């Protein structure tokens, strides 16, 4: 399930939405459900929230491991996988009067959708960023939602795998990471074209808007940093203490052993 960061919720939020896969390890998923959870001012003593409605849709589509995009007008945009293993971006519009959500294909052969946070879906100057594996490799694209025209941003970086798009503080700046071998480099695409974000920190990745104008957040896998949008004056923002662990799994194949 992909959760929602409480700090990013607007004060007027009345509900949150969680995408989950039904089924357990020994029971294959039959369908994916979209669950509404209403937020009430009177939270029960145990801190739980009440499940108000569950929406299910076809079993031939399963969720891909990318966060969904929540849109203000009752729409969710997320990456789903078809039986052939092809990832595509779908749009789901829903309301409280229906118990069935029907995904509408929005972008074929695409994943990791991102939208400007301050703009809703539809209208002019609404852009959707995503990543796609095409004939030149893994690239970042932007599509204008009013015309559905798609433009690649990263084909001018041959040999690099580019991924993880996110919008800056405006709908015309897109941040992303490119990797060649073991080396990663962050970039920003804007009115001046593709520009590298130089931080001086090895393996800097995942640039995104910090919510403070002119600043970004990024990480190196252990520490989250804040810097000016061009990568200068980087300083630790949050350090994540992690321990190396070994995770193993096995399959019994139906045996009682």
Give a summary of the structure in a few sentences.
By secondary structure, this protein is mostly beta strands. The chain has strands at residues 15-21, 32-38, 51-57, 62-63, 69-71, 75-81, 87-93, 104-107, 111-114, 127-134, 137-144, 149-152, 161-167, 174-180, 183-190, 193-197, 205-209, 215-219, 223-228, 235-239.
Observed structural traits:
20 strands, 257 residues, mainly beta, disordered C terminus
The secondary-structure class comes to: mainly beta
What radius of gyration results from the CA coordinates? 20 Å
| Secondary-structure element pattern, one letter each | EEEEEEEEEEEEEEEEEEEE
How many extended strands?
20
Poorly predicted sequence stretches spanning 5 or more consecutive residues: 18-41, 49-54, 119-125, 249-257
For the termini, the CA-CA separation is 30 Å
What percent of residues adopt helix (DSSP H or I)?
Answer: under 10%
- Morphology call: globular
Mean pLDDT reading: 74
Distinct helical segment count: 0
User: What share of the residues does DSSP label as strand, in percent?
Assistant: over 45%
Largest sheet: 5 strands, antiparallel
Structural account:
- The chain has 257 residues and is mainly β.
- 0% of the residues lie in helices and 45% in strands.
- The protein has no helices and 20 strands.
- It has strands spanning 15-21, 32-38, 51-57, 62-63, 69-71, 75-81, 87-93, 104-107, 111-114, 127-134, 137-144, 149-152, 161-167, 174-180, 183-190, 193-197, 205-209, 215-219, 223-228, 235-239.
- The strands form five sheets. Strands 4, 5, 6, 7 and 8 form a five-stranded antiparallel beta sheet that branches.
- The relative contact order is 0.08.
